[in-house]
Amino acid sequence: xxxxxVITKVDSDLFITIVESCIDSLCGRAENFTECSLTADETLIxxxxxxxxxxTILKLNLGxxxxxxxxxxxxxxxxxxxxxxxxxxxxxxVKAIRVKLIxxxxxxxxxxxxxxxxxxxxxSSLSSKEEPLANFSFYLPGGVSHLVEMNKKEIDIxxxxxxxx
Length: 165
Known about the structure:
Blueprint: H1 3-7, H2 12-26, H3 40-60, H4 77-88, H5 91-103, E1 112-123, E2 128-140, E3 144-151, H6 152-163
Antiparallel strand pairs: 1-2, 2-3
Helix pairs in contact: 2-3, 2-4, 5-6
């Protein structure tokens, strides 16, 4: 069995359910495939492909029309678009996964980091906004750096994912 054959058995609703569970798993929470009509082996094949695709999409900033990995070449493009829609609906988790991907790189290792907190103020005639934001800079060998900005909710999700690791 390969991904291209198994994915033909998956309708859009089931695919979204599996993607949501894979996002939870990548954030350090338990996977839940209880409502899945696939066999255990088929579920494993699909979830591995989805997790790999999510990581590739986030590492390379791929768009909805770009196929994330070669195993997705034979799959209907609607699944790639559904995957992107699920990621867009969960920006906090996406940031947490991105940070994990940065920190979990086998090489190069994290050389240094820096962080600071900003208080964002904004107002209009309809509403005002007061929100703390944290900036994290991760410095890697070779002068490569990654900047991640998170609000309080995203920091809580990130810390929770690190604690569950």
